[in-house]
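Quick one: co-fold with S-adenosylmethionine.
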Amino acid sequence: MSAEIRHDWTRAELRALHDLPLTELLFRAQSVHREYHDPAYVQRCTLLSIKTGACPEDCAYCPQSAHHDTGLEKEKLMDVEAVLEAAKRASESGSTRFCMGAAWREVRDGEQFDSVLDMVRGVRALGMEACCTLGMLTQDQADRLAEAGLTAYNHNLDTSEEFYGDIISTRTYEDRLRTISRVQQAGIGVCCGGILGLGEGIDDRIGLLHTLATRNPHPESVPVNALVPVEGTPLEDRPPVPGIEMARVIATARIAMPRARVRLSAGRTEMSDEAQALCFMAGANSIFAGDKLLTTPNPGEDRDAALLEQLGMTSVGA
Ligand code: SAM
Ligand code: DTB
Ligand code: SF4
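Sure, here it is.
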């Protein structure tokens, strides 16, 4: 393999890659991609919101924050059984990873966390990868999730450290990094990425990629979300992110973190087939399947099946 795994990327190097002529950038990303991955394969993951709304954090993009009036119905933590039924359906429809999201600032020990641990064990017993995103964790909680068999923990940095304070005031970048390190320490895969379209500059996108690409090891997966603007949030009027900008960030992530799964995450509903195809050519090799993300719409099985068919790509076998 010629593309070595590096952890010493500089911001300038990443910016230079990002700004290459698109044709050159995609060529380089594709060269790295096929050294480490099957270029025809895309992983499908299913998301489920196991606890919805009324979150004490003030993330400006999020429909689930109690600080914004988005008209979202809040819901208590789901029963273990209902979650496992949804996981079974997801597996039957071809998803290989099941991701459970809770609108919590942090995990609290007790009955609810014990239920989440049961959910993780149940998803693993179905033969699926299990992922959770539950907010901040202590080391003991991360260790217990690892013991339950959790494959990956999603905890996004969203943007650069410099821009972070413009988007969230109730926690710091440092808080986020601390949880990520605990997850890693517990031996769980780190799923960490960001959102484009928050009003950030290109250097903020590079700042995020730099933080991720200089971690050792690199994250197991890197979700690249396009903001889904939700009425009632401070970012409701943000303009859509051009597909080409998504592709540039994905390609830079692919080159800098060759082994990571790069997930074309939220925002696909608004993207054309061509823009999504460009993102796959840039090195994205995972998507969220099904007609719902956590609380907002996603393209759904039929549109995705038609897209993958057109592209001659598959989500079966790795
Ligand atoms: N509360 C936990 C946390 O924030 O870590 C887990 C759930 S939270 C909804 C998971 C991720 O969804 C966030 O980190 C953010 O990156 C993404 N997200 C939330 N709202 C979004 C939106 N409107 N558009 C795109 N991504 C969004
Ligand atoms: C991630 O990076 N994107 C997913 C998953 N990780 C948890 C969540 C997207 C949420 C989009 C807004 C919503 O549906 O509520
Ligand atoms: Fe809460 Fe997570 Fe939404 Fe922030 S992104 S408001 S922490 S659910």
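If it helps, Strands lie at 43-51, 97-102, 129-133, 152-154, 189-191, 194-196, 221-226, 261-264, 286-289.
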